[in-house]
Amino acid sequence: MRDELLHFPVNYGERIEIYSGVARLSGKIWARLVRPDGDRPGTAFLIVHPTSNFLGHYALEPLAGHGVAAVGMTTRYIGNDTSLLFENCVLDIASAVRSLRERGYERIVLVGNSGGGGLAALYQSQAEHPTITATPAGDPPDLTAAELPPVDGLIMLMAHPGRAQVYTEWLDPAIVDEHDPFTRDAALDMFDERNGPPYSAAFLARYRQAQLERSERIRAWVLERLARLAADEEGPQDFPFVVHGTCADPRFLDLSIDPSDRRVGTLWGDARTVNVAPATLGRYTSARAWLSQWSIRDSQGHGPSHLPHVSVPVLVVYGTADNAAFPGHARALYDAVAHDDRELVTLRGANHYFIGQPDQVTACVSEMVRWAREHGFN
User: CA–CA separation, 200 vs 129, rounded Å?
Assistant: First the structure.
């Protein structure tokens, strides 16, 4: 088995979005290629996520063991969603696809894992039918003017529809003061036992509406802040802030909502604790990144919005014990595909990261390779 560290060229631009000058000046993003010994396979699986470090992705060695090449890549925002722009992530994937084509890989299967599902769908839709000319804040890049080589197949692996949708579904509507997560509206508090679990349909309806309203309040503040920054041509171009309470989806505590085999809690443990913990989804962000990544109204990284515009085969794989990407998420991705060359695979009992489940990794990779070979991706 061969194991190589790859780098792909990217233009970080003039705006400082990451503080490491070494990283910016390198003009590179990184990936890890694992493939079988001997002749180079004709197909490469490219596994992507907006921020995760996929150099150690669990599927790399197993895929290579099946005789295919597997690449786990990072974007320029590795481990840093504070200033992330989905549109730049599209350019990073394009660089990886071009480089793999130059290496002789005739077919590329783009695997969007977890939050990479929406990104993979966005990439292919723009590669086939480019429409996006700017970020939601009106900044470059113009994807209609970019070279975005299309891939040959898409896999949505343990994926949710997109970061903005999940973020909104997890946003705590009980917070009434954006600077203090402990000042709360008891009537909208999912952690108040008087509300549940189980939660009534009426409570859930109020809760979901209040989540949207909080998202809109944050959006209004972001737009006002950006307008003030734009008025000062010599001042800063962006502004950082904290969003409290980003891990409060009632599905974490009430297993009857979007029912599955999952356990109570989140990917990171107890929901009440994680909801205010420093290291969780979208806690720190800039104004421009919030619009691109977390705004349910503005973000362009929503898988079901883009999958109707892709022509390549699509495989959706989900686990019934996943407590981040729920069965309804998988169905939404599958249903969004407008053609018939689509497949939905269910991994019974599989959790989001296959923690303690080596047999599930084996089953998942076997399904991916089986599907690929049925489509001639050898």
Answer: 43
pTM of the model: 0.96
CA distances 288 to 224, 245, 292, Å, are: 12, 20, 6
Q: Quick check: 300 and 314 in contact, CB under 8 A?
A: no
85 and 99, same domain (yes or no): yes
Contact present, 90 and 26 (Cβ < 8 Å) = no
Question: E-strand spans in the chain?
Answer: 2-9, 28-35, 43-48, 69-73, 107-113, 153-157, 175-177, 180-184, 240-242, 284-286, 314-319, 342-347
pLDDT band per the 50, 70, 90 thresholds, residue 253: very high
The domain tally of the chain equals 2
Q: Residue 132 — φ and ψ, nearest 5°?
A: -90, 120
Averaged confidence pLDDT in the chain: 95
**Residues 6 or more apart whose Cβ sits within 8 Å of residue 6:** 30, 31, 32, 33, 71, 99
Count of CB atoms situated within 10 Å of the CB of 117: 34
In a shared domain, residues 7 and 151: yes
